[in-house]
Amino acid sequence: MNRRGLIIGGGALALAGCRRASDDKTSVAAVAPAMPETIVDLSDLEREHGGRIGLSAQLHQRVSWRGRERFLHCSTFKLFVAACMLERVQRDIETVEREVAITAADIVPHSPVVEPAVGKSLSLLALMQAAVEVSDNAATNILIREMGGLAVLGAWYASAGDHTTHVDRLEPELNVADGDKDTSQPIQTTSNLDWIIKTYQPFGFLAEHRPLFDWLIATPTGPDRIRAGAPDGWTVAHKTGTSGTGQTNDIGYAYPASGGEPVRIAVYYDAPESLSAAGRDAVVAEATRRALAALGLTSAVTPEKPAGPPAA
């Protein structure tokens, strides 16, 4: 495959020199786009189902709930790992065709693509697709290692103006709450998503050199989260994140059926462990539904339909 036919943004992406990720906990308000903001009250969902919900959705205005509180990002950060690696390819630091030898030492729980490849090799392109599309943990860790470690990933966040997100551990350890480690804020996440789409927008949404968005659309994980909260006919390009202690997250882009700019959306749900997986997904879907309604894009009516199977 032609490298330029695969890289997000072609030659338009011009980033400042990478720098080490900052430990500064400055409010995200310093980097989030200035725009009207409305609070969407999700306290009734929290009372009914338990836990804590973080929401940010933005288009030409922003709606949020607990938008500046920290939440474990879990596997949602894999979207940004792939974006970072693609940017490195665009700058001729890497090539998507480069093969990486896979060893038994690489394998961690939930490595559906990488584990069968032990003793063989996988390209960076295949590793990125595995990390984003099926949330392969070993693929994610290998990508971070091959780009130079967590400091390089942190510097990529900083190049996007993000000094809020923490990237401290690898999979699967990052799914365990430990202070501010491996956390972000909903408003910061949608600011990052906005930065990506505006940086790469001149090259179109589904052009052949936009593999990241193809993977985000194709992912089978979390069909009952943001996707279930978006109206029929909308296209959702998203990345889920889930932990064994209740965290049920989803971030990405929701494209209206009528076309036009996508909504940048992030929903983080620290759910009680007693709540079923289907119940947790339903809360994320309802938060999505209310966010889109608050932006004036849909009705606030909640459809009555049975919950689907638990997300992968």
Structure commentary:
The chain has helices at 43-49, 78-90, 124-133, 137-147, 150-159, 186-200, 211-218, 226-229, 277-294; strands spanning 37-39, 52-58, 62-65, 71-72, 99-101, 121-123, 183-184, 235-242, 247-255, 263-270. Helix 2 (78-90) packs parallel to helix 4 (137-147) and helix 3 crosses helix 4 (137-147). It has 312 residues and is α+β, with helices and mostly antiparallel strands. The chain is built from 9 helices and 10 strands. The two termini are 30 Å apart. Mean pLDDT is 85; it is low at 1-31, 202-209 and 301-312.
Low confidence ranges = 1-31, 202-209, 301-312
Return the string of H and E elements: EHEEEHEEHHHEHHHEEEH
Structural class, from secondary structure content? alpha+beta
- What summary fits the major beta sheet? 6 strands, mixed
Terminal-residue CA separation: 30 Å
Mean pLDDT: 85
Rounded to an integer in angstroms, the radius of gyration calculated over CA atoms is: 18 Å
Q: Taking strands numbered 1, 2, ... along the chain, how are they ordered across the largest sheet? A: 1-3-2-10-9-8
List keywords for this structure.
single chain, 312 residues, alpha+beta, two-stranded antiparallel sheet, 31% helix
Gist?
The protein is α+β, with helices and mostly antiparallel strands and 312 residues long. 31% of the residues lie in helices and 16% in strands.
Write the layout of secondary structure elements.
Blueprint lengths: L36 E3 L3 H7 L2 E7 L3 E4 L5 E2 L5 H13 L8 E3 L19 E3 H10 L3 H11 L2 H10 L23 E2 L1 H15 L10 H8 L7 H4 L5 E8 L4 E9 L7 E8 L6 H18 L18
Parallel strand pairs: 1-3
Antiparallel strand pairs: 2-3, 2-10, 4-7, 5-6, 8-9, 9-10
Helix pairs in contact: 2-3, 2-4, 3-4, 3-7
